[in-house]
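Q: What structure does this chain adopt?
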Amino acid sequence: MNIGFIAHDAKKTLLQNLCVAYRGILSKHTLYATGTSGRLIEEASGLNVRKFLAGHVGGVQQLALLIEQNELDLMVFLCDPLKPKKHEPDAHQIVTLCDVHNVPLATNLATAELLIKSLGRGEMEWREIYR
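A:
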């Protein structure tokens, strides 16, 4: 499965901790992320991440393209809805594309954990058929 990751600045440490906690599951899949998020995931967890540009300079659009091409099976976008900043990626585009293309999306830690645990139990295999 192909999994995408983005995190607003205030949520990057949370994203790192999530990837460390679920390293065993995530290591069996192909991971994609915007530049900074990907680098931080690699540093914290040792996982291999295919990194795009930083989110605010095109990385979000690169991940969006994977969604549009039906190449992404799960998306984790840890947003900070209380303190959005102009230079941080806009969640609206990703949310819309995931809804249009039927890609499971987590925008908070609780949902991210549920989706990753589901992935670990093999409950996301329907995405392979969907592709």
